[in-house]
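Key result, reporting period 2: structure in, sequence out.
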């Protein structure tokens, strides 16, 4: 059975969607575009060699950049074709084919990162289970950061719209409290627009200060 993502991706790019997806970002980078906004935000929040779970890693664009910067990266995605591209591109990173709703890697991370509309692309009815398994992978003192579109203009194809309030409630129910809502990966203040980057921390944790220049 195809996932929501696979159905949308095949409709847009055919059966070779994983390669097409990776090539699109390579072309943007080759043309001088910035494709590392997510990694830049991670670098503002914590310094390498902190551990990062790239959850919903796709073809590994974000995880590969974080690995390059010196982070301890593990990536996972439900789509085996996307993960195969990631493994080919960066074989030194540990990449898993895994459903976030049942993720069980046996370790916790300083940061769990979900980029690329991962949450709206979950299978219907699995947000609660995914929130629970993702929370189980956040280390004490760690955080979870996710970015996703809030309207059709910021989502691929006919991807279902997921309300920010529902995401906040799902993570709160498993002990992750929202600490910030931003309008993008540059941490601009959230303006009730069509895209959000949200940060969560385990209930009761005190946020650590961001790394200072030079260490």
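The corresponding designed sequence is given below.
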């Amino acid at each position: 059975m195809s996932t929501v993502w696979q159905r949308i991706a095949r409709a847009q790019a055919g059966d070779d969607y994983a390669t097409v997806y990776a090539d699109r970002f390579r072309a943007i980078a080759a043309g001088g575009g910035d494709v590392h906004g997510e990694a830049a935000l991670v670098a503002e929040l914590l310094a390498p060699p902190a551990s990062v779970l790239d959850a919903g890693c796709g073809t590994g664009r974000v995880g590969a950049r974080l690995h390059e910067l010196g982070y301890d990266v593990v990536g996972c995605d439900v789509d085996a074709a996307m993960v195969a591209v990631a493994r080919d591109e960066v074989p030194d990173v540990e990449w898993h084919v895994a459903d976030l709703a049942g993720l069980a890697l046996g370790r916790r991370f300083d940061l769990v990162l979900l980029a690329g509309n991962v949450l709206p692309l979950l299978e219907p009815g699995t947000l609660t289970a995914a929130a629970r398994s993702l929370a189980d992978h956040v280390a004490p003192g760690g955080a979870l950061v996710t970015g996703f579109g809030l309207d059709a203009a910021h989502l691929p194809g006919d991807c279902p719209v997921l309300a920010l309030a529902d995401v906040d409630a799902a993570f709160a129910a498993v002990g992750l409290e929202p600490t910030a809502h931003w309008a993008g990966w540059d941490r601009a203040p959230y303006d009730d627009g069509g895209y959000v980057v949200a940060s969560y921390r385990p209930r009761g944790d005190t946020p650590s200060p961001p790394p200072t220049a030079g260490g």
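The domain at 36-202 is CATH 3.40.50.150 (Rossmann fold). The two ends are 47 Å apart (CA to CA). This case is discussed further under Risks and Mitigation.
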